[in-house]
Amino acid sequence: MARQNRRLGRGARYGKYDGGPDPLAPPVDLSEALDAIGDEVMAGYSPEQALREYLRRSGRDASGRDRAGLDELARRVAERREQLTRDNKLDGTLQEVKRLLDKAVLAERKQLARDVDMDEGDRALAELQIGALPPSPAAAVNELNGYSWRSSEARADFEAIKDLLGRELLDQRFAGFKEALENATDDDRTAVNDMLADLNRLLAAHRRGDDTDELFERFMARHGAFFPENPSTVDELLDTLAARAAAGQRMRNSMTPEQRAELDALAQQAFGSPELMASLGELDGNLRALRPGEDWSGAESMEGEQGLGLGDGTGVFQDLAELDALSEQLAQGYEGSRIDDLDLEALSRQLGEESAVDARTLQQLERALRDSGAMKRGSDGRLKLTPKAMRQLGKALLRDVADRMSGRTGARELRQAGAAGDLSGATRPWVFGDTEPWEVTRTITNAVVSSAGERPAGADRGSRVRIRIDDVEVQETEARTQAAVALLVDTSFSMAMDGRWVPMKRTALALHTLISSRFRGDDLQLIGFGRHAAVMEIEELVGLDAKWDKGTNLHHALLLANRHFRKHPNAQPVLLIVTDGEPTSHLEANGEVFFDYPPHPITIAYAVRELDNAGRLGARVTFFRLGEDAGLARFIDSMARRVGGSVMAPEADDLGVAVVGSYLGSRGSWRSSFSGSDPFDF
């Protein structure tokens, strides 16, 4: 169906839909993509690696259609390449020459047998000449060059060999010539010879460094019909010719020495004109000199059943080169690689439009992730998750925690950030179930701003302002005590080795999101402890890679937590400790780390002393014990009893529920039901 283009109003156009995702639907599900990338980052991948891994996997697009990832597309490319080398062989031209030769000889034998008027001596001589032909097709053709054919059919078949060789040799350099020159006349052959002569003059001048713009224009004006690609410069013409000539050379390199020798001998018979081979040889020399970067030395093993002629074989070798380029693009292994580098036209040619549609969807997905503000490139050139992305991931994790909590132990209402009491001075958008007083000034300001674009020009400034639900903000109150929260997470290698690394990070991000969005008066400090301890920002902890680092320095972590509590003397200390091992290292007075396993009594004493200090500061302590080690269980139980704390032993997947639930319990934020509201609706 011909492409349609019609005007729709002023300057608008529409045309035939050329495939791809539904243009009226969002092409990608960013929330699903961001969740998957977030999981990879938490597992220790960089955001750049995580994005690549996500794009490599298969998935579904916005319409629910299965979408191939980079790995699946790469598999299809490899399969297509293997098929080309498995199914084909390179003797197609030789086989066709042999077929035509056998046909001509058979027709001549029949004519000699039925020609009753022929002199018997001449008949015997002709039969001897025909019967004594060498087995080599090239030698046989050369010997029959001066033979006087009695059969017109045989003569036509023999001349077809010369015509075939000429067309194949030209098709090897200029795609499509084999078909275009079928049944060619002498004038057609003269036109080809003239084109080759002019082309070699043009390339020789370009090789010398002459200004060839005008010469190129004259060449294309005279011979442009031979080049459907319609190159606009000498370099474009060179690129096209050199790529095909190099593919033809790789095909020649892949032949056996016997096959090459046969073709070289036969080539002299092309069109019955040795001048053609001289022109083609000069052309090949010019192309090699002007494009030395092409692969002129490669070869392939082709052992299939389908014989390829010179032109078709060269096309297959061009396909192989294109498939190799696609494979490199899909691997994305080079510096600065982007999915936008994918050649969609080449992908469509080699694998079909469906694969090109999948690749186009992946390109849109990568662009959408970068353009959405979820990922950005830092000053060091590396891709990073933005704070916006961290908030989105945290909300998703917190909602999962809410679902688990509501299904197991009754719902926890987080919306009561102070339903009564002194105003905190902070405001937030109203959500269903809130009982806090409205912040009237902020609400009216929001309403004026949101409706400004809807008021008609010239409207009375005294017009009424319509307040919508989205405009309403409420005042937060301080009915509860402010909390100073320290979440201590074990970052020793055993956490990663036993599959607790990602759950630990997900828990930290969920708690951070909860406090930063719903309990903004509380102050959370995240402390990771392995061989030594460190205060970490949430982005640092989420991106932390697991390292082989012996030591569980609870002592150092408690020192940092107590320092945090002392900075907030009017806040309620809340100490949450996630670990899967007993303390095996502590901080010495000189700042050095002491390590010993099994745990040294001094290490235990240092940890106990700092835990007692936390107890004296009034900290509400909860241990989250991971694993089934009996010695660890006895140690943690005794530690918790010293400070009146509690112990929870959740499975790794339930760690987030346990930590968030414990925090809410320490804040008195428990409710027996949701009262019809969603407590995690941010």
Map the helices and strands:
Layout: E1 6-7, E2 13-14, H1 30-42, H2 47-56, E3 59-60, E4 66-67, H3 70-87, E5 88-89, H4 92-114, H5 120-131, H6 137-143, H7 152-173, H8 177-180, H9 186-208, H10 213-223, H11 234-254, H12 257-267, H13 274-290, E6 306-307, H14 310-331, H15 344-351, H16 353-371, E7 375-377, E8 383-385, H17 387-408, E9 423-429, H18 440-451, E10 473-477, E11 483-490, H19 493-497, H20 501-518, E12 523-529, E13 533-536, H21 538-542, H22 554-566, E14 572-579, E15 585-587, E16 593-595, H23 601-616, E17 620-625, H24 630-642, E18 646-648, H25 655-667
Parallel strand pairs: 5-6, 11-12, 11-14, 14-17, 17-18
Antiparallel strand pairs: 1-2, 3-4, 7-8, 9-10, 12-13, 15-16
Helix pairs in contact: 1-2, 1-17, 3-14, 4-5, 4-7, 6-12, 7-14, 9-10, 9-13, 11-13, 11-14, 15-16, 17-20, 17-25, 20-25, 22-23
